[in-house]
Amino acid sequence: MKRQTTVAISCGKVLKVKAQTMIFTQVQSDDEDDRESVASFNYINNSTEEDFAQIYHVTLIEDGEIEEEDADAAPVELEEGVKATFDELREVNLGNIEDPRPIYTSASLTQEEEEAYIMLLHEFKDVFAWSYKKMPGLDPKVAVHHLSVKKGVRPVKQGQRRFRPELIPLIETEVNKLIEVGFIREVKYPMWISSIVPVRKKNGQIRVCVDFRDLNNACPKDDFLLPIVELMIDATTGHEALSFMDGSSGYNQIRMAPANEELTAFRTPKGIYCYKVPFRLKNAGATYQRAMQRIFDDMFHKNDECYYDDLVVIEEARGPSL
Known about the structure:
Blueprint: E1 2-3, E2 21-27, H1 32-36, E3 54-60, E4 66-67, E5 89-93, E6 102-106, H2 111-123, E7 144-145, H3 168-180, E8 184-186, E9 194-200, E10 206-211, H4 213-217, H5 229-236, E11 241-246, E12 255-256, E13 266-268, E14 271-275, H6 284-295, E15 304-307, E16 310-315
Parallel strand pairs: 2-3, 7-12, 9-13
Antiparallel strand pairs: 1-4, 5-6, 8-14, 9-10, 11-16, 13-14, 15-16
Protein name: Transposon Tf2-12 polyprotein
Domain Reverse transcriptase: 199-314
Organism: Sesamum latifolium
């Protein structure tokens, strides 16, 4: 089958889209007839150009669609997102061959700076977690995720999806891992049941995602204010040293409210389970951001900036951050 390519378009500034806006895209072509067709417009519901407040014409340059016999076999280069930096990095192992603990330092560091950072990281390496088992999770006094399902909403039980036979043992292996680390537990007689969507990772293993759309639609939006990304980026300008940290499996360190756990029930070939952590649930981001701002309250907008599980420590000069 053909997989449609998804393209991110940067306009160099925030694109303020108003009501009745149409964005018309066309792949660049060397054919003269195709170039002339850019001027043509396929209107929806017999609309005319005057019916739209704004119209954008965007020409895309791409190598063509990817032919795949099965979507499961399609490339996954973008699964983990694009790289946030173009700095050359060096990998440093804080562990050993049997128990690797990789971290990455900038190649632009001087030898003295790199040695100082590595010495510091070695001293506090037990603070970081390289596996699920070593994540104690946040104290419930700091953060707990609640699901406030709207009153009168009828529970939805999604049907069992069919999977190719060779996928089933991979799904069961991933489910066993989640059980072992305490992220999920078995549940009986749940009112809500969601289906799973297995996604193949770069290493060939399977990530078990859950289709929580019905449950998420039944929950109101948490209006907790999130930081404005543009202002956070501006706050880092003029600083010589930036240290980036990414929360490892951050959402899995926040517990669900016990009374809401069974609302997250999902069906697998192995059985029905529910989450003890708010993975892929509506408002989980707001819960996580609220927890981070509570933890780093006296440091926000002074020494660090935080957006969800991404944290950057800023210093005017190189060295003091140590």
